[in-house]
Amino acid sequence: xLEQLQIDNLALIDHLEISFSAGMNVLSGETGAxxxxxxxxxxxxxxxxAGGEMVRQGAEEGQVSALFSLPETAGxxxxxxxxxxxPDGQLLVRRTxxxxxxxxxxxxGQLSSLSVLGNCTRPLVSISNQHETxxxxxxxxxxxxxxxxxxxxxxxxxxxxxxxxxxxxxQERKRRAEQGRQREELVALWQYQADxxxxxxxxxxxxxxxxxxxxxxxxxxxxxxKVQGVQEILTEADTSISNMLARAGDGLRQAxxxxxxxxxxxxxxxxxxxxxxxxxxxLRNYLSGLVFDSRLLEEVEDRLQLIQRLTGKYGADTAAxxxxxxxxxxxxxxxxxxxxxxxELAQAVEEKRRSCFALSEELSLRRRQTxxxxxxxxxxxxxxxxxxxxxxxxxxxxxxxxxxxxxDLVYGERVLTxxxxxxxxxxxxxxxxxxxRPLSRIASGGELSRILLVLMGVLSAExxxxxxxxxxxxxxxxxxxxxxxxxxxxxxxxxRQVICITHLPQIAVYADTHFQVLKTTxxxxxxxxxxxxxxxxxxxxxxxxxxxxxxxxxTIALAREFLEKARGPxxx
Length: 572
Known about the structure:
This protein has helices at about 35-45, 115-120, 140-150, 155-200, 205-220, 220-235, 240-260, 265-290, 295-315, 320-385, 445-460, 480-490, 505-510, 535-545, 555-565, and strands at about 1-10, 15-20, 25-30, 60-70, 75, 75-80, 90-100, 105, 110, 125-130, 390-400, 410, 415, 420-430, 435-440, 465-470, 495-500, 515-520, 525-530. With about 575 residues, it is of the alpha+beta class. A hairpin with a 2-residue loop joins strand 18 (about 515-520) and strand 19 (about 525-530). The two termini are about 20 Å apart.
């Protein structure tokens, strides 16, 4: 709701502060008093273009500020403004405009772009006049209005969820298909590499063992000579340690026969010979296995060259090569898993496409049934406002596939979208003999205002704009019809704030708050002021509106009668 509006140095306005109330606010005043300037001030806060000529003569800069109380929702969706609201749920917007054409905007004290300002304020305010394009005139919004009128929000929410799930499945399928294509380009290489590694039959740590074996084969003769010499020293020669130890043992045993106390030493000497014999036997076995085969050396060298070639391609050593083989085998297994996953995704996509189409068809049927009811309701309301011959129609345009349409979103030659199978637009023929035209192309300001008034009343629902401003709603409207328009505005004001500029007292009497716009001249400067009217002032202003000039006792009495009638039972 628009709580306060402050204007400085805009056209005829020097400084003006207005506190609006909930319900129906009426602004009246003589022609040329400056009522349209108030509309322009709100336009500027909606992001409209500001020209340098709008700055009041003698000033270099003009300014418009507004304080809004924030709704929980706007435009049928949770309301979230870019800079966040104040803790008390209020939004303060401000815009300055200079004579040179420069313009700046602030939202809750933070500098903002005009586009962000407009995105923030347009869900809050709708201005109905001959020159503004309103939410109800925007064909992109008509589908949401029809669905709200029909109570189809749950169905449309389900469709959006299914469509989003379909999109997610299509993205997943696309991602996996791309991975599959990339994998197929490499799978032959992976298979070749895996086969090459498997054929080598590597074992971890094999390379170090082969290098040691190679060195032994190359030095076999030297090793044989050294080991053979050691063997002779230990056991083979007449003067070997083994023979010398045996002779020493014989002598000690003979001495022990003479002195038994030497028996332990005899045993110790015998024990010394046992490991000596074992070493000699081990050396004999080693020499018997020592190979002087050049072909075996070549085989070892060839094996080492194979491992060296593989390490140059697949890893630093045999353990790393075997790890790489395991990774290759995992990738090849994933290829088979992806193929199965793609089949499952294809089935899921088709099921989701069927669900999306079936729900879209149900939604389309419900919309077409409701469209006829909506047309009848609106034509009946318009008849009560003096547009008896006005025709209203909801036009349906099927979503047709085009050159750039995703084939996965085409089902039964219809395009699947998050909103359904068709676009809609409101069409009207205000006068007999005229063909139906889009709502946005209705030329008459008075007709347009009354039509929008009816539409807003019929399509009234939670989430629509909080503040509706009507200008020229009484254009071409007489007294009797004006009373009906006033009652309709009063009905509309039960659900939202209404600000109405009018010349008709039959409309003004239904206001909850009445303002008078005045043009005064002081020190040879003309200025526009606004005054919130008390009960007596309001009656005098209604009398002026009735007579067109200064009020008389009779017009004051008539104004009081109009006001009491509007407040009486059955007044709406």
